[in-house]
Amino acid sequence: xxALRGRWLPLAVLVAAAAALIASLVWVVGGVSGPSGPTxxxxxxxxxxxxxxxxxxxxxxxxxxxxxxxxxxxxMQFSNGYxxxxxxxxxxxxxxxxxxxxxxxxxxxxxxxMMWNTAYGMMSARDQAGAAAIGPDQAxxxxxxxxxxxxxGLHAGEPDRFxxxxxxxxxxxxxxxxxxxxxxxxxxxxxxTWHGQFLQMQEHPDE
Length: 207
What we know:
This protein is of the alpha+beta class. It has 4 helices and 12 strands; from the N terminus they run αβββαββββααβββββ. This is PepSY domain-containing protein.
């Protein structure tokens, strides 16, 4: 009987782990209710309807930002949706979000904002060994080198510093094409492939 229990124990552990995973996925996808209303995966804010213009995108991002003591900075429209920078009270850049044009749902941007941000992402500062080693000028050089090898004809704009990384517009002459990020510790480059074609941009009045 002891030997039988020993053979079944790994299977029981596996089944329990699978059940826990399924339960966690149901909780995340279904959303949880917070003090400011329903939230979605990655701490997002559920939408209040279609986003038809930059003003709608700004308001949607503002709802997400307000729950975290932040405010909206730059807002951009791409063919695949809207993007916004969120700023801290002192004006420093905190994180980046995406706004779904169909539903108005706001969530942390894929990529660096989730994985590299040491204050608002999935990786806390203690998980990032060492202080930032890459300065803004070096981030531009790294970005330009990467673009010469992978996006011929483009160059990097001014670096916007976020906790743990920089984000830079990619330019064709003076025209924005897209953006990429450079890790401030390792120098790794992450191109934002999910935006689509750049359409327009606005700076927030009080940025």
